[in-house]
Write a structure and sequence with these properties.
Number of domains: 2
Structural class: mainly alpha
Order of helices and strands: EHHHHHHHHE
Oligomer: single chain
Distance between the termini: 18 Å
Strand order of the largest sheet: 1-2
Length: about 230
């Protein structure tokens, strides 16, 4: 607050390095293409398990392909071509991002740790309007740390299961680690829906809770209203 009792103007702060911004937008575009081409691949055989054999894992999309509107490639070979083409820049972007986190030390402000549990609970209370004031936070609040840590681990899982079904003979040990080809394909498939849910929730929260973060991801500079303890 100022001496007159008016709220102090938010001071712009440098928030995102250009590597973070570049990999963020590349990942958004490439991941959308990977999801859509993956749905095209699934449409060629919309179930799990060997042909004619049972597979009892839950699958609400059993024998049902997603609308062509949300698929990329037009047919199986086309979907595979798009998937494999987008796969490498997505992996390279992910490695570049993780390398930056390690080299810059920024992973410390992003990694969710046991000490963040209490802050995550308070943050959830704020989102549910059970708490009026916004909890103090650093660059990322505890719920954001949890979401980003989880999504990075999910990305690693997606890459590993993807390679397990891409090269099941050459990487037989990896395929076996996930329980075989069909099991690896199953977990790879569900990673798609978790990523989709994350993207939808992420976009909604950006516009509803913190619109300034969108500008920060474009320009690198953040001018927000949330208090910080850093």
């Amino acid at each position: 607050m100022t001496a007159t009792g008016q709220p102090a103007a938010a001071v712009p702060v440098k928030r995102h390095h250009w590597i973070v911004r570049l990999t963020h937008w590349l990942t958004f575009v490439l991941l959308a293409g990977m999801i859509m081409s993956g749905l095209q691949i699934y449409a060629a055989y919309a179930r799990f398990g060997e042909r004619g054999g049972p597979y009892y894992a839950p699958n609400p999309f059993q024998d049902r392909a997603v609308s062509r509107t949300f698929r990329l490639g037009g047919w199986l070979a086309g979907g595979l071509n798009w998937h494999f083409t987008l796969m490498w820049p997505l992996v390279i972007g992910g490695v570049l991002y993780l390398s930056y986190l390690v080299a810059s030390g920024e992973w410390r402000s992003l990694l969710f740790r046991p000490r963040d549990i209490r802050g995550a609970v308070e943050m959830q209370k704020y989102y549910l309007r059970l708490r009026k004031d916004h909890p103090p936070q650093g660059k990322h609040n505890p719920l954001q740390k949890f979401a980003y840590t989880f999504i990075i681990l999910l990305g690693v899982l997606s890459v590993l299961t993807g390679f397990a079904i891409y090269k099941p003979t050459q990487l037989s040990w990896l395929t076996a680690l996930f329980g075989g080809f069909q099991a690896a394909r199953y977990w790879h498939f569900w990673a798609v829906w978790i990523f989709t849910a994350f993207l939808i929730v992420h976009v909604i929260l950006v516009f509803v809770v913190d619109p300034a973060s969108l500008r920060a991801m474009i320009t690198g500079w953040y001018r927000g209203r949330f208090p910080s303890h850093d």
